[in-house]
Structures are given as C-alpha cells and as structure tokens.
Amino acid sequence: MIRLAYSYINGVDALNRRLGRIVMYGIFVLMGILLWSSVSKTFFLPSLWTLELAQFAMVAYYILGGPYSIQMGSNVRMDLLYGEWSPRRKAWADLITVLFLIFYLGVLLYGAVGSTAYSLGYWGTEPFSFFGGLVTGSEEIGRMETSSSAWRPWLWPIKSVMILGLFLMLLQCVSELLKDMLRLKGEAI
After folding, report:
1. What does the DSSP assignment read for 19-82?
2. Which residues form the signal peptide (predicted)?
3. Is residue 78 pLDDT above 80, yes or no?
C-alpha cells in the first residue's frame, strides 16, 4: 500500500512539475498579447481580440500553474502560528485542510464540466453522460456558446483548460494528502 502511495505521489508530482515548468513561461505569452494590444492601439487600429485573449491566457496560466504552486508549497498560507508548529502538527493541519480543498475542487470540477457541456450546446442535466455520448457517438455538439464581446470567441476551449487544471489540482491535492498521511506514519517523503 505504501509503495502504491509513493508511486502515485511520484507520478503526479512529476507530471505537475513538468507542466508547471512549461506553463510558467506563459507569462511571456501574456506579455506579448498585452504588448501587441498597446502597439495596435497606439499605431494602428485597436485590436478587438487582445484584451479578451489576455484574460484567457491569464486563466490558463493561473489554473494550470496551480498544481505546481501547491506542490512547491508556494501557495498563500497564514503563517502566524503554522511556522512554529512541529512537523507532525503541520501534517495534521495540512491533512485536515487538504480534505476541505479536495471537496471544494470536486464541486468546482463538477461545475466546470457542466459549464463546458453547456458551452458545447448541451442543455440537459447530465453533463458527464453528454461527454460519454460524444465519445460513443450518441450525442452531438449543438450551438456553441460564444462570448458576448465584439470578438465573440467560443468559450469551450478555455472552459476545457479549466477542467484540465482543476483535475490536475485535484490529483495534486490527493498527492499532498498521501504525503501528509505518510508523514504521520513516520515515513520519509
């Protein structure tokens, strides 16, 4: 059982570390979009798509970088008391709080799947069966949701990125939960 936990931890941590190291360069993509926005507004006709694309890039940067941030321990933490606690007490506190985070991420993931199904033209109440139907061919994509801006891009790509990011964050939180449980058992992580 412990070997399986270590395998899961190593696999998820490696995946999120690699993806996080790639995604962190997304800030340059965001800077390029905003630079083009400034240049086009100054010298040419303003581009309609730049600010909304910058928002999409920022969402992707933030949500795909979240699992790496949790893994590195660089998420915001109230260190008023936590810094003085023993490693065992920290593990207990982290174990309890990560359980709440896993529940919260599960609710967010369920909502993101429903929202993505809606953006693909599904108006029913079972978004998971809709995606299963897409795979088997029993469902079809309907009229796709677009943004209300003048550019009017489809919203399913960024919503799909949100599903991926929330899923990876959920995997990373389970990894952190297992690490805390192993620490409480006296295992070296």
Report:
1. HHHHHTTHHHHHHHHHHHHHHHHHHSPPPSSHHHHHHHHHHHHHHHHHHHHHHHT-S---HHHH
2. none
3. no
10 Å CB burial of residue 63 (0-12, 13-18, 19+) is: buried
Q: Which domain range does residue 59 map to? A: 2-76+84-184
75 C-beta neighbours (distance < 10 Å), count: 10
The answer to whether the beta carbons of residues 59 and 162 sit under 8 Å apart is yes
Q: Which residue has the tokens 């933030």?
A: 62
Structure tokens at 47: 């581009």
Residue-wise pLDDT for 139-173, tens only, equals 888 889 999 888 899 999 999 999 999 999 999 99
Type of residue at 46: P
The model's pTM: 0.89
How many domains in the chain? 1
